[in-house]
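Issue: ligand-bound run for magnesium ion - logging full I/O for the record.

Environment: standard queue, default settings, no custom constraints.

Inputs:
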Amino acid sequence: MNLLKIKALRVYFPTDDGIVKAVDGVDLNIKREEILGLIGETGCGKTVLGMSIMRLIQSTTLTDGEIIYKDRDLLSLSDDEMRKIRGGEIAMVLQNPMTSLNPVIRVGEQIAETIRLHQGLDKKAARKRVIEMLRDVRIPDPEKSVDSYPHQLSGGMQERVMIAMALASDPELIIADEPTKGLDVTVKREIIRLMKEVTAKRSMLFITHDLGAAAEICDNIAVMYAGELLEHASVDSIFSEPLHPYSEGLLNSLPERGLKPIRGISPSLIDTPQGCRFHPRCDYAMEICREKHPEMVKLEDGRAVRCFLYA
Amino acid sequence: MLEVKGLSKYFSSGILRKRYTKAVDDVNFSIKRGETLGLVGESGCGKTTLGRSILRLIEPTAGKVLFDGIDILKLNKKELRTFRPRMQMIFQDPDASLNPRMKIRESIAEPLKLQRVEKCEIEGKVQELIERVGLSPEHANRYPHQLSGGQNQRVVLARVLALNPDFIVADEPTSALDVSVQAQILNLIQDLKRELNLTLLFISHDLEVVRYMSDRIAVMYGGKIVEMGDVEDIFNDAKHPYTKLLVSGKEVV
Amino acid sequence: MHHLTKITAYILIIFVAISINFALPRMMPGDPITSLTDDPTTGMPVIMDEDIKEEIRSYYGLDKPISEQYTDYLKDILKCDLGWSIYYNAPVAEVIFERLKWTLLLVGTSTLIYMILGIFLGAVSAWKRGERGDLGLLVSVLSIGSFPSFFLAMLFIILFGVKLDIFPIFGATTPFMEYSSTFDAFKDVLYHLILPASTLVLTSIDGPYLLMRNSMLGVLGEDYIVTARAKGLTEWAILKDHAIKNALLPITTVIAIRMGFMISGAIFVETVFAYPGIGKLLYDAVSFSDYPLLQGAFLIITLIIIAANFIADMTYLYLDPRVKHG
Amino acid sequence: AAAEDKKVLKIEGGDYGYPSPFTFYSRGPGYIRMSLIFDTLTWKDDEEIIPWLAKSWKSENGGTKWTLYLEDDVRWHDGEPLTADDVKFTYEYIKDHSGSPLFKWFSVLNYMDHVEAPNDRTVVVTLTDPLPSFLTDFAGCIPIIPEHIWKDVSDPTRFTDPEAVIGSGPFKLAEYNKAEGYYLYEANEDYFKGVPLVDELILLEVGDPALALSAGEIDEASFWGSEIDAVETFEADPNFEVISGPSFWVLKTIFNCEKYPTNIPDFRRAIAYGIDRGEIIDQVVHGGAIVANTGILHPDSSWYMPGLPDYAKNDAVANQLLDDLGFIDTDGDGIREYPSGEDLEFELLTGDRFAREAELIQEQLEAIGIKTTVKAMSTKTLDAILKEGNFYIAVSGHGGIANPNLLETPNWPGDTYHNDTYDSIFLEQETEMNHAKRKDLVNQLQKTIANDLPVYTLYHPLIWSVYNPDKLDRWFYTLNGVATGIPIEMNKLIFFARFGDANEDGDIDMRDVTKIARMICWLDPETDAADANRDDKLNVLDIIYTELIILGRV
Amino acid sequence: MRGALKSGNVFCKNRIGVTGLGILSVFILTAIFAPFLAPYDPCEMFEPMAPPDSQHVLGTNDIGQDIWSELIYASRISLFIAFTTSIIATFIGTLSGLFSGYYERFGFFVMRVVDLFLALPRLPLIIILAVFMPTSIWNLIIIFVLFGWPITTRIIRSEVLTLRTRPYIDSERMMGAGDLYILGRHILPNIFPLVVVQFVMEARHVILAEAGLSFLGLGDPTSKSWGMMLHYAFEYPTIFISEVWKWWMLPPGLCIVVVILALVFVGFALEEILNPRLRREIV
Ligand SMILES: Nc1ncnc2c1ncn2[C@@H]1O[C@H](COP(=O)(O)OP(=O)(O)OP(=O)(O)O)[C@@H](O)[C@H]1O
Ligand SMILES: Nc1ncnc2c1ncn2[C@@H]1O[C@H](COP(=O)(O)OP(=O)(O)OP(=O)(O)O)[C@@H](O)[C@H]1O
Ligand SMILES: [Mg+2]
Ligand SMILES: [Mg+2]
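Outputs:
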């Protein structure tokens, strides 16, 4: 049962230099209680994809397609209806907790805001709930921390607050955009464990380019490259047997797998390469790759890949 | 080749009542020629400060840095200037490591000019360096903001190489980069190191990266080096509790 | 700790200001005795014997060595005695304080209004950035801010005082009006305040407006605004609870500094509207070479400005937890 | 309703201090504000010295002893009687406190040897030297203060209690607002000269007098020199009346008589011929001034000497003089050279307010080959420079030129003119009690200035009072200025029915009869045989006497 | 070069900036070609207080000078003072800002001086100095410079402080570059746009201050500036009760307004170009 269904989503940014096709025809489904990892190199459009689900992209962009959440197309909701969904049914954890918390508001208040808004609790009840939340994300001494300002907390604690904030209104879907960016290795590890725990009964879109983190937490993985999805598979299969040459290259770049880089550089999102977008860097490139744009091919074990090798 | 003895750096704050941050506290180690020492530790433990102190980019509070037997900390301004090209540093953020108002060509030519290389030779040398680090000649006329992070880090490397250094401090050179680009850069550094017999102090917080790059590893915690040893010793038989914590949870994918 | 350094710095500035106040008038040409005897109204020359001059000099302590004058001066200031105004023939403190209230009223009211209005408009402008409303607001605020205050004041007199004849054109109250109630008195003061205050407000509003607009634009690009939006807060709540407070932070100090400008700006407005404030007094004191008055007026203005800065610092502490607990 | 019947007069003003004799600001308007509350022994109207607190007087011992007889029933505002002891106290008290900054107004007390009060109504002042101006500068200037209030006041300049403004004058101070420069006076119903014509007098500071006047905010304002344009507007307005008077003020070019070349009298004369004073008056002052007396004293002063050379603009004469002195333009650039070959060029210093006059002079001098650069500065700075003698030519002005004492330093505030004969004549006239003789001496001084030209006077601005006659129409300008020469129209006499005016009942005020009586005694040949205006006075007396007879009052 | 072209490009798209620059050039050209544009010598005297007619487009002033010619020549003085002051003040401010940002100890002392200057009431001090210094254009310039440089110093310094810690500056040092070389070749070009903004803002401030001082009668009364024209107009007794304000007071006042507005527009546009965060939503 799909909780969220993205159909042919396109998000284009008109700029001075041309149109940036940050998301260019993405189809993606997130099932109930599924944790879907979205991986890909910098600038391939992961954040834009996540933000456009929440409709947090500024108005000057060109957005096309459908984002169906529980039978409703988010893109055609009114601003007011959308606002109720934001934070209530779909929550988002932004990258970099340090800048994503308002520095001049107590963290308790920042969490309480969501609770009051979506659950209609009064101030006192909200505070009680906040303390519970903080305890849930294992912040030491929550009664005291609730009145702290963000800068008084360590990076790891800030991230916990972000997570608590996202969980506060008991959302069905969490979109986490690189929640561990800028954190220390040891802290990062704890946070990932925590996320895994708290999302046990929820759905999550986990955006990252940290493959290790993705491997640990996700059920399924979608690989993104230059604005489109290249591969979609379960976490085990993709790490053991990546199908798309790009996925393979990405994994091989990991130090633990021998640091074998993909050659060439990532394409510009303004003039994407003709044919397969990855072909200039692909070791298996064929004639057809240069000419035709490949479609997503569904394979029998539920995997899908956009490559002529599997057509 | 490089010997660090009792190096400390305290930052003071406050005017009336001084408070000290012991960013680097009595650090001792040495690196042999051609060796790579990896330096790991959590954020804020003093890695960057140590690296910069060794190169005297900041004045250390106490200690000695012997480079081929010369105490760098005792050099005067002029001596230091002539000595400096032998030691170089690569920074974490490649975009900020280049003057945004200078073309790539100019940035690479800069050290050559400072070394008083003949004008007519410079152009050829720049071309050579650009190719050496795997950039194409067309990049020479671009500005840093027109290149990707990985490409900029290559430019930085080219510039460092122009000086023919003996010793390089690489301060998290790839932490701002993507996995695939990181692999490119790390490989490049390894290649160059081997070719030119460079000595390297490699700072990172990514254990896997350090493991791949280094001969020996030093673990830093709270301004002090708490453990030092060969790569495999550290990974298989950590002594210090912090090192244990670092090593224990490593995920093998 | 932090407070201690701040306070030391303030004391130092006050001390330097006092010393400058002392030295400056004495470095100027022209003897206060001449100004005492010359009559600018009728320009009647008074040719005085040297011994009479001496007598008057010693009366004012001007015959003592500079160092002694200086220590006397410091002592008196500590005693809140700012000296005796030569021209006004009254205690300087009294002369100043009598006008100070009008300047404070004028500057205070204007500051309050222009700050609130400027900040509000700046916030609106930033919120609607790039839209028609922003451009319109921007151009009109910048245009009105380009008017020299005295020019706008003159235009106001012509327009509202003469042509339309709806506002009084000079003074701070209707002279010797017998008020039937305090409300009446308040109305009268307000009535006289409207033109000078509007002049100050209109010519100063561009400062907070631009600062707020810039600051807001910065804040609106911050991640925590996205977070707030992701929580489902309404736009108004985001503006109110998240954006404005953060955007205000960096501009409080600047606004305090501008408070000083306001007092300076009041010199022009007070001159044109014949408003009985300290700005006009300062100008008079200068033209009469009235050392004690000059020193006093300076000192008071400087103290006000320093106080404003101090208040701003404190507000900043109050507003920014990063500083407070840092 | 009663309040509305009150006659209120509002006059342009400003803050000139608390109007006690020791706290008003040392300026003419300050004195005027004080003079409404405090009386002096004598006073002046538009024609002459008149008795005030003293109803008559006589001088003896060559002008060193003055006996003054006081009016009988004069009371202080608090009801106490004003006696000769108060006068004696006043003179002694002020002399004792001569360190006060207001001393300049009362500096004539230096001439006083001692004062006695032989009885309640008689005061005898003995002077160290004869003082011809005793009646104006001494008796007509020093305000009499109540002994019962001031005797315990040690520092009068800091005494600002309400008692400090208890005087004997026609008005009582009801309110004073220093910050806004407002004064509110109430009429003194028990004044010994009668009840003032207005019940309340308000002086207030306005930003722009012309505007305030036309808006009806004030009933009277004064204008000066180039402000004639405003005066003309009001002249055309039937709601206002305008009177004009002398400012006793002069703008002059001051020469440094110690520095070459301005130390050469002919050089100074050449410059005088080069300057067109008429053009300055027309162009800069718009006709709001008269060409100045080259002997400095104002034509409306009784000491004025007519017929002095006026150096009417004449470039030919000027050029001739300069050529003769050897200042010749040899290189043909239009600028003369010193015999040494350098250009004849110097700075023309001026106060900020007279930059425009100076610029015009610069142009006029260029026509006779003298190049000047105008350098404007604040009056203070200019005065300082002039005192140091660091200049060639400067343009500056001052007032008070009704009084021959002003001639002491003719190129004031510079002090570069040295002429021993001149100085000795000046000293002589200071103590000369014989009016005709003294006048002759003063004439000699004026003649010397006009010939020697340590200064070349430019113009005397006119002053005007523009008023609303419905509120009060008795405005006039005082002879030689109020008290020591304040050219302000607000003489307290304007608040009383004047000589010959009918009162509200159509009757002639009885005070006029007193005046006639006084005039008769005044015309006593012994008192003042040599009075120049004697015939005029007789004429006036005749007319009034006839009218009084017609009215059946005598 | 392309960097410069690019910001030029952005500038052209910025309507506000282009408008400001356009207006400013009109005034600069007027100032330069004043002798050709003005029908009369501004000091030549005609019938005083003549209302506008075909001879005198804006009538004549109180001493008969043609107001239109005065207005044109006044742009010279006003702009001359503004630009000279700004150039000197920005120059001093930039140099001291550069060095005080780069050398901590030196910077510490400079900043204390700057703090002091900024803590003291600027206009009242300027007024006093102006009253007692002989009024000449150069004295005005000296006074304005005296109070103009500290702000620039502070702004430049804070920028240098952030630039100084950039890794590329450290790299330069590692290559053996000297301090002056780094300051001149790497830091100065990077703060240059900021210097331009400061220059514009200072010019605006000076025009206002000059007009203000002249208005209070503290300018050089023999010079022709807009502030001085307003001063004489304000002093004129019937300025408020007759119609002369329309051609005597309004034109110089509006000139000041328009020039300041032009400078503000240019400064505003420059700031938008420099601050990339603002640039995205350019008007
Ligand atoms: N407002 C915008 N205007 C123009 N281009 C934009 C805008 N926002 C994003 N982009 C571009 O869209 C592309 C996708 O950006 P996005 O932030 O989604 O990348 P990402 O995959 O999240 O990268 P990272 O891993 O670095 O966070 C980038 O090339 C970016 O430059
Ligand atoms: N200029 C400075 N003044 C004061 N304290 C400083 C300064 N530079 C660094 N520190 C402090 O010294 C300590 C060590 O900092 P350093 O940058 O060396 O850490 P790091 O290990 O490199 O961290 P990271 O992994 O985040 O780069 C930190 O606590 C830091 O706050
Ligand atoms: Mg992202
Ligand atoms: Mg570091």
